[in-house]
DNA sequence: CCAACGTAGTCACACGTGTGCATACATGCC
DNA sequence: GGCATGTATGCACACGTGTGACTACGTTGG
């Protein structure tokens, strides 16, 4: 009950109170079989009364592990990222790991700085989302043996351990859906920052067109920025074309949100005038007007899988494969047959 | 250039390579004036070549500080929370602090567990958002001297250091805006989880009504959950009333989003049939159809202020006041005069 | 009764870094 | 030349915890 006002009690304070050596206290608190159960419980009681809490810092120094993982994200303010991190955090917490969070702001220099900071702090493992840095992580991995898992990796260089969504197949499904509705002029609004995932979604888009015998038209592929603002601008470009598209597939839901805004502002209707498909299935896709057809990513699950992969690596298993999670088309209200067909 | 494959080099390895004691290495790397500039730069070169990085955990053990802060949030998947954390992270990073992130899932037991975990790890400071725990933080503060800053605190008990939005004034402005447009039947959709902020926004709502001589009607105050789903359900209740409201003020934008969804589904129009006001000004408020009138919280700034307050406390300043940030009404397209008046 | 043995606890060291104090050496002054 | 002064470096300890090796003691078996 007697709280130490000045400094929190150390293991030696407890040893003194219990009239034993600090070694015995250490063993008693870790339930070692080397200590008499009666004195063990006595010590535990004393420690509890004194409000003793073992220092994780000191323990880490001797055990050489911190029960800590580092997570690097572009920005946590991105709803997609936030959900992935939530999944990571959930699994980490269950296993008594604490997570460091750092934003890289899509600056590879900051990303490297963050990873170095993690290394200094002796994190047991690192998860990097949407990384743009290729070889760094391998170097780090080989030098200091810190396991690294990449989720939604944006660098083409294959990484030993990563969790990815099946972009090609997902976007293929989305575009195929539009084709089946009767669309032929289908646009794609890219993300000029999403290197790998954007390229893969473009691949799926082209594959679907080719498979249906629709010729690829360069003017129908325009650039956004993966955010709503970029979607608006890109959509305006598309609407200004001589022969505008009847359907638009967007890199992600945020882009689609901006596109939708632009279409509304031009007094056009979705899906009557233009069909719209997103990617990610953010919660918001269910609350747009009309509800957004999109390709679902199991975001939270991606985070969980990444953390579980990392746990395996940290426990010494080295035979862990990369994981590729299937995407699922979710048809809602923003897609319909084009006017020509429906009339 | 010779990379150590097995274990990262320690300060003693560098000392051996430079043929000096580890003390000299330590001083050289911290640019102490006690060491000859020439040997200092020689040592620095050797350390760089060996890829030496000082262990933060060993340093923390002796310096008694970790340059680490803990952040507890309800869930990072909430867009409001994510932006606050982004602000915290930005300032922390500038000052070379790393941040631990933990979700409490609105479970006060988990919140306490998280704070204890932080204490074990010797964090230099703690930020808790939307805390539901009252006295714990004072106890922790008085016992272990770890500075705690509360942002958007949900417990009525006044805390020594907190960052809050001016809820009463913000919601008063919002409701006053509706009254000036001619509305008399104005509903409020509450949040059954937001103890303090919800109570304050209700207070502002009632104050505005009273000031305008509008009698408070109990049936016009219904409960949501602070999320879109709850907003939908609550709105349905309001539309089912014998004399439904002509305007609805929502606890936050997410609630408003759900309400908007419900109104659309009932084939009614915003703002022609019903005016709608949110709170927070999430980015999404600019991308709904119609754009949402709302009360802006400077979310990122709240996080920055919280971190700056914490920095002051950690540096020993104890005369830090609580901060109260003004909210700002942002009028967009979801509010208009009621039908009776406009016709 | 003594040796062998198991049990409960202590001693001492390690983890990697920072720092007060002592020391060795060079320099300057009387 | 001896002494005070200053400078560059090494020694030893501290931070708080975990653990292998060792010891003291009580018990058992021959």
Structure classification of chain A: alpha/beta
Main sheet summary of chain A: 6 strands, parallel
Strand order of the biggest β-sheet of chain A: 2-1-3-4-5-11
Fold-level CATH name of the largest domain in chain A: Rossmann fold
Compute the number of helices of chain A.
13
Q: Give the beta-strand count of chain A.
A: 12
Show the helix and strand layout.
Two copies of one chain form a homodimer.
Chain A: H1 11-18, H2 22-29, H3 37-49, H4 56-63, E1 68-73, H5 79-94, E2 98-103, H6 108-120, E3 125-129, H7 136-144, E4 148-151, E5 162-165, H8 167-180, E6 186-191, H9 195-211, E7 221-224, H10 228-239, E8 247-250, H11 253-265, E9 275-277, E10 294-296, H12 299-314, E11 323-325, E12 328-330, H13 339-342
Parallel strand pairs in A: 1-2, 1-3, 3-4, 4-5, 5-11, 6-7, 6-8, 8-9
Antiparallel strand pairs in A: 10-12
Helix pairs in contact in A: 1-2, 1-3, 2-3, 5-12, 8-9, 10-11
Chain B binds a DNA duplex (30 and 30 nucleotides) through helix 2 and helix 4.
């Amino acid at each position: 009950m007697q709280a130490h006002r000045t400094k929190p009690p150390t293991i030696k304070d407890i040893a003194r109170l219990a009239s034993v050596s600090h070694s015995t206290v250490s063993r008693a608190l870790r339930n070692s079989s080397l200590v008499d159960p009666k004195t063990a419980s006595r010590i535990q009681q004393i420690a509890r009364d004194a409000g003793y809490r073992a220092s994780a810092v000191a323990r880490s120094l001797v055990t050489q592990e911190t029960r800590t993982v580092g997570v690097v994200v572009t920005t946590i303010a991105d709803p997609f990222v936030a959900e992935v991190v939530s999944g990571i955090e959930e699994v980490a917490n269950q296993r008594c790991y604490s997570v460091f969070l750092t934003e890289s702001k899509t600056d590879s220099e900051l990303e490297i700085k963050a990873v170095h900071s993690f290394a200094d702090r002796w994190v047991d493992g690192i998860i990097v989302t949407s990384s743009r840095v290729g070889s760094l992580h391998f170097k780090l991995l080989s030098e200091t043996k810190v396991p690294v898992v990449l989720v939604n990796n944006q660098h083409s260089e294959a990484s030993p351990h990563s969790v990815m969504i099946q972009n090609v197949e997902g976007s293929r499904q989305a575009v195929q859906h539009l084709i089946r509705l009767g669309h032929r002029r289908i646009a794609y609004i890219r993300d000029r920052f999403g290197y790998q995932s954007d390229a893969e979604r473009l691949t799926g888009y082209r594959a679907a067109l080719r498979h249906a015998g629709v010729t690829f038209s360069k003017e129908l592929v325009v650039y956004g920025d993966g955010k709503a603002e970029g979607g608006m601008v890109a959509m305006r470009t598309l609407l200004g074309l001589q022969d505008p598209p009847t359907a638009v597939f967007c890199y992600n839901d945020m882009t689609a949100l901006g596109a939708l805004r632009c279409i509304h502002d031009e007094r056009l209707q979705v899906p009557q005038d233009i069909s719209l498909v997103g990617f990610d299935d953010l919660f918001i896709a269910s609350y747009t007007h009309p509800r957004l057809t999109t390709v679902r990513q199991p975001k939270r699950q991606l985070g969980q899988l990444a953390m579980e992969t990392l746990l395996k690596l940290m426990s010494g298993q080295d035979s862990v494969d990369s994981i590729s999670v299937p995407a699922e088309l979710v048809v809602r209200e923003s897609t319909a047959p084009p006017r020509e067909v429906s009339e």
